[in-house]
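[#protein-structures] MJ: dropping Nitrite transporter NirC here for a structure pass
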Amino acid sequence: MFEKEYEASAKGAAAKVHFLQENPLGYVMVSLLGGAYLGFGILLTYAIESYLGPQPSAHIVMGISFGVALSLVIMAGAEMFTGDAFILYNGLRRKTVTAGDVAKLLVVCYIGNWLGALILSAIFYGTGLDTGAMAKALTDAAALKMTLPPLEIFCRGILCNVLVCLAVWCTFRCHSDSAKLIMIFWCLYVFYTLGFGHCIANMTLMTLAMLAPHPDTVNLTNYFYNLVCVTAGNVAGAIFFVSLPYGLASRRRP
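AK: finished. structure tokens for Nitrite transporter NirC:
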């Protein structure tokens, strides 16, 4: 039932590996853009919180707004680690890519996303807007994410990337750009409003919190602690809760 879409995603994995091999600089550039595009979503949502204040409805509006991040990645064209983990594992299952290809591409994509998030954060800090209510919103959120127990961070990472990967999967299932954008909106609305964790989005959030006046709990040790736990959860969500189920569902009978 899902054979056509799963096969298309597996071929997409091979195309990504070929892109990295043939044009490594180009691949790094679109990975940088992916990190920056996720960062724009973070900037928008925490600007909204700074305008609306700490009220329950603010988080709903933030969730509605965050869809711009993945919309830019999919529609403008960029590489994002969390979505690539899903597509590449599909390719690994269908043998369109090797384990070495997957590991290399994910490392390059992760570093590229990280650099993109760092560059965007530095430029935004240079605007002078990372102050006042916005700085407080960022540092409060980062302090919470950096001090959660590891299992909570891991589980939030799983659920987050289930929804992100479902949005990516729907781009193979949907045939019009408007349908793709609608599904991206819904999937990201759920993950953001519920407070799940995305490693690439957290890169911008936590970097900006480090640059602003911040409490002692916002520090480099906790920065890496969060990234390790949430990245592991994101990868587990992609492989075990989206790629594997749809791979089994799309398997042909002998």
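MJ: nice. The radius of gyration is 18 Å.
AK: one more thing. The longest helix spans residues 220-249.
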